[in-house]
Specification:
Oligomer: heterodimer
Largest sheet of chain B: 6 strands, mixed
Structural class of chain B: mainly beta
Structural class of chain A: mainly beta
Shape of chain B: globular
Strand content of chain A: over 45%
Strand content of chain B: over 45%
Radius of gyration of chain B: 14 Å
Order of helices and strands of chain A: EEEEEEEEEEE
Distance between the termini of chain A: 37 Å
Radius of gyration of chain A: 13 Å
Order of helices and strands of chain B: EEEEEEEEEEEE
Distance between the termini of chain B: 41 Å
Chain lengths: 113, 114
């Protein structure tokens, strides 16, 4: 049973470009969470999604950031017009329900030049 | 507001010595508590978790943690550290009321001297 798969593992973008990060949850998991880890900080919750629904996006920046989890395919975190401050590791986690254990992917590390 | 405090940013211990990493939380609901470990450039691996019941929890790799409600603490311990334990350790708290919207501490970096 494959774990949470994230890609790309590393992404380099220039300021103003778009970044798309993908996350495939563990098989059987319908709950997906995105967290951001800034350098030398802990993880901060961004958004919680179920299939085709955003349940809680209270941790998402108001502009340039969006997330989706379509009926088919991976969850995507999209950052438009990236700035240097977006450089971080973005972790996806999945679970079988909204409670209990979360399983984390290995993260996507975004570097904005 | 929910918060998790890991007072020690860095800890260095000798291989074979005992280890205790501190975690204190402030949470407005009955907490679920977790310890995760992260090696450089890697994702997070769950070491152990507390949901309810016995307040002394055993995890993987010889780690244990004790939930002390009166002190709002969930400290991680290991009786004898191995060089491979060098990593960053994160304490996290969640609650049934907030689902899996976990709040993480800032982490403690463990260095192991041989």
């Amino acid at each position: 049973n494959a774990g949470v798969m994230q890609n790309p593992r590393h992404l380099v973008r220039r300021r103003g470009q778009e970044a798309r990060l993908r996350c495939s949850p563990m098989k059987g998991h319908s709950h997906v969470y995105w967290y951001r880890q800034l350098p030398e900080e802990g993880l901060k919750f961004m958004v919680y999604l179920q299939k085709e629904n955003i349940i809680d996006e209270s941790g998402m920046p108001k502009e340039r950031f969006s997330a989706e989890f379509p009926k088919e395919g991976p969850s995507i975190l999209r950052i438009q017009q990236v700035v240097r401050g977006d450089s971080a590791a973005y972790f996806c986690a999945s679970g079988q329900s909204n409670t209990g254990e979360l399983f984390f992917g290995e993260g996507s590390r975004l570097t904005v030049l | 507001a929910q918060s998790v405090t890991q007072p020690d940013i860095h800890i260095t211990v000798s291989e074979g010595a005992s280890l205790e990493l501190r975690c204190n939380y402030s949470y407005g609901a009955t907490p679920y508590l977790f310890w995760y470990v992260q090696s450089p450039g890697q994702g997070l691996q769950l070491l152990l978790k507390y949901f309810s019941g016995d307040t002394l929890v055993q995890g993987i790799k010889g780690f244990e943690a004790e939930f002390k409600r009166s002190q709002s603490s969930f400290n991680l311990r290991k009786p004898s550290v191995h060089w491979s334990d060098a990593a960053e350790y994160f304490c996290a708290v969640g609650a049934l009321e907030y689902g899996n919207k976990l709040v993480f501490g800032a982490g403690t970096i463990l260095r192991v001297k041989s």
